[in-house]
Design a protein that fits this description.
Structural class: alpha+beta
Distance between the termini: 61 Å
Largest sheet: 6 strands, antiparallel
Strand order of the largest sheet: 1-6-2-3-4-5
Number of strands: 6
Strand content: 5-15%
Order of helices and strands: HHHEHEEEEHEHHHHH
Length: 329
């Protein structure tokens, strides 16, 4: 088979094998942010690294709590389409190009790869419940080469024959190009953006309180779990998103502080608090997982979750108070 490889692909492979994409800064990163990316973010991160872009700028809206209370099942996740529509490329220096469904054929996709070098693929189960993303990095005569950074599959894998035909029918393909007209992101800009969303953030914090109350008032396990596989359950997937969002915002602030060479205690405190709330949300998620495997732990776990939620609310209010009063020295 004739293999088509791009310079970008070679660069990407080098990046991913040399320290799994960690950034070479004077200060060591405090967390492994790659473990806090969803599949689409992991794919975009790979594209950004190959194009020398600051991928952490995609975390600008990661402080969120999407709790749809009032439903029979606890929902903490956006639908597939809601998620993609809300993804913010403003500060990445990239433009996303969605490929027309009519162009979902091998011949045309090869032309896109020749032009843009890489593609992100999104596939859905058609019900907006489960979906996945990965990266196309080249092609061969009868198929495509892909990497799946979310599952740490960094060796190129061929997508051919039946699997390829299935993806061409249901997948959405995206290419990315340089965008010189993008907004610069710094601490002041980020904090100004957060301050402008005060009503939304305060509503999210009230929703966290309601979430904790709903958990504490539950009497039967079926109200928590909607699948036999714990990691497919809506609440567990949602709590992963919430947890990762706090780590992502902390990481974004940490990277901006390093870039600006700021040693401001207030910024450090905000970063610390985001990491602390990330750990607390992780505790909540782990307690729910433990309930799934041991129903006798239900009442005890509810008390622990209630305590963690109280600490989360306190810390998230403190974060906003610091940001609201922040003025650069």
């Amino acid at each position: 088979d004739t293999i088509k490889r791009s310079k970008v692909e070679i660069v990407v492979r080098k990046i991913m094998y040399c320290g799994k994409g960690k950034d070479s800064t004077m200060e060591k990163d405090r967390i492994n942010i790659l473990s806090h990316l969803d599949c689409y973010q992991a794919s975009v991160q790979l594209v950004c690294k190959s194009m020398n872009k600051n991928y952490w700028n995609m975390f600008v809206n990661s402080w969120d709590f999407n709790y749809n209370y009032g439903r029979k099942k606890i929902m903490l996740t956006k639908s597939y389409n809601e998620y993609l529509d809300s993804f913010d490329f403003s500060y990445l220096g990239l433009s996303e190009i969605e490929i027309l469904k009519s162009d979902n054929n091998l011949h045309t996709l090869k032309q896109y790869i020749d032009k843009y070098k890489m593609m992100v693929v999104c596939t859905s189960d058609g019900l907006d419940t489960f979906w996945h993303s990965y990266v196309i990095v080249g092609y061969l005569e009868n198929g495509l080469w892909f990497l799946d950074p979310y599952y740490n599959e960094l060796n190129k894998t061929p997508l051919v024959e039946g699997s390829l035909e299935n993806e061409l029918k249901k997948a959405t393909f995206y290419c990315f190009c340089e965008n010189d007209c993008f907004d610069d992101l710094d601490i002041s800009t980020l904090f100004k953006s957060i301050r402008s969303k005060e009503v939304e953030i305060k509503e999210n914090i009230r929703a966290i309180l309601k979430f904790g109350q709903d958990i504490s008032q539950m009497n039967i396990l079926s109200e928590l779990f909607d699948y036999d596989d714990i990691y497919s359950c809506t609440i567990i997937r949602g709590l992963k998103v919430v947890t990762d969002g706090r780590f992502q915002m902390g990481y974004l602030i940490e990277q901006l502080r390093k870039k600006e060479l700021r040693d401001d205690e207030r910024i450090r405190n905000v970063c610390d608090l985001f990491y602390e709330t990330g750990n607390l949300w992780s505790n909540v998620r782990n307690a729910v997982i433990r309930i799934f495997y041991n129903s006798k732990y239900f009442d005890r776990a509810k008390k622990k979750i209630e305590l963690d939620i109280s600490n989360i609310i306190l810390k998230e209010n403190t974060i906003f108070d610091i940001i609201k009063s922040y003025r650069a020295l």
